[in-house]
Design goal:
Elements lengths: L4 E5 L6 H18 L5 E5 L5 H8 L5 E4 L16 H6 L2 E6 L2 H6 L4 H14 L2 E6 L3 H5 L3 H12 L11 E5 L13 H19 L8 E3 L8 H5 L6 E4 L6 H15 L2
Parallel strand pairs: 1-2, 1-8, 2-3, 3-4, 4-5, 5-6, 6-7
Helix pairs in contact: 1-2, 1-10
Bound molecules: 1,3-dihydroxyacetonephosphate (13P).
């Protein structure tokens, strides 16, 4: 059976109280679905991790951070370490999101250190990669993806690749309401799978490759149905429990086909 991960990236949304309510709605909705074959992951802001963990504690919903630093402790005011995420019950962390690359000037060098440190600490990393609109127009998409993958996974030991998930998130599709087309997504995901096959061999077949960028309940059927798409990293629609649950239901329907 195809692997499927439906992950909500709440970004800088929800207070702890709001996060609890949202997590509860998602949990109740999921319980009414019964046993699911897809994995569900919630990535609230750091300040809400504890509150959300309390809600999802005895469920199959997993918890993730939206970022973390590469050092495990020390004088790094304002930063969060992989160990802190682990102790709060996180099993995943998102690294290299385009909003962090753009607004917080995270370089591939920093992302590389973060990926390897988080994986060594025991987290599964969702590494985000993707091209800007200008890069796509200049036919640089695959050169950019290749550059990012080579740079961002440089320090990672081959044995640890099983703990890395790739999220293909074309920058121009994030938060715009315009997702990449089925053809564009299929082409990028095929390319990413092939990149890993060439570099790491057959383990590439087991890797989870997510799509992110204006994925919602109105376009998830055709996107999740693409061969090399193993789920989604969802921003806006993950804040709406009805839409998020509809996406999970669609994933379930596709898995049971
Ligand atoms: P949207 O789903 O809001 O486009 O955000 C996608 C994203 O950035 C997920 O990480």
């Amino acid at each position: 059976m195809k692997k499927m991960l439906i992950a909500g990236n709440w970004k800088m949304n929800t207070t702890p109280k709001e996060a609890k309510v949202l997590a509860q709605k998602i949990l109740y909705g999921l319980e009414s679905l019964g046993k699911t074959h897809s994995k569900v992951l919630l990535c609230p802001p750091y300040t809400n991790l504890f509150a959300v963990k309390e809600v999802i504690n005895n469920s199959e919903i997993e918890l993730g951070g939206q970022n973390c630093f590469y050092e495990l402790q020390g004088a790094y005011t304002g930063e969060i370490s992989p160990l802190m995420l682990l102790e709060l019950g996180c099993s995943y962390v998102i690294i290299g999101h385009s909003e962090r690359r753009t607004y917080f000037v995270e370089t591939d060098d920093v992302i590389n250190k973060k990926v390897s440190s988080a994986v060594v600490a025991g987290l599964k990393v969702i590494l985000c990669i993707g091209e800007t609109l200008e890069q796509r127009k200049n036919n640089d998409t695959f050169a950019i993806l290749e550059y990012q993958l080579n740079q961002d996974l440089h320090l990672l030991e081959i044995k640890d690749i099983k703990n890395v998930i790739i999220a293909y998130e074309p920058v121009w599709a994030i938060g715009t309401g315009i997702s990449a087309s089925v053809e564009q997504i299929a082409e990028a995901h095929d390319w990413i799978r092939e990149f890993f096959r060439n570099k790491y061999g057959e383990i590439a077949n087991e890797m989870i490759i997510l799509y992110g960028g204006s994925l919602s309940d109105n376009n998830c059927f055709e996107i999740l149905n693409i061969k090399n798409v193993n789920g989604g990293l969802i921003g806006g629609a993950s804040l709406d429990p009805t839409k998020f649950l509809n996406i999970i239901k669609t994933a379930e329907d596709l898995l049971s086909q």
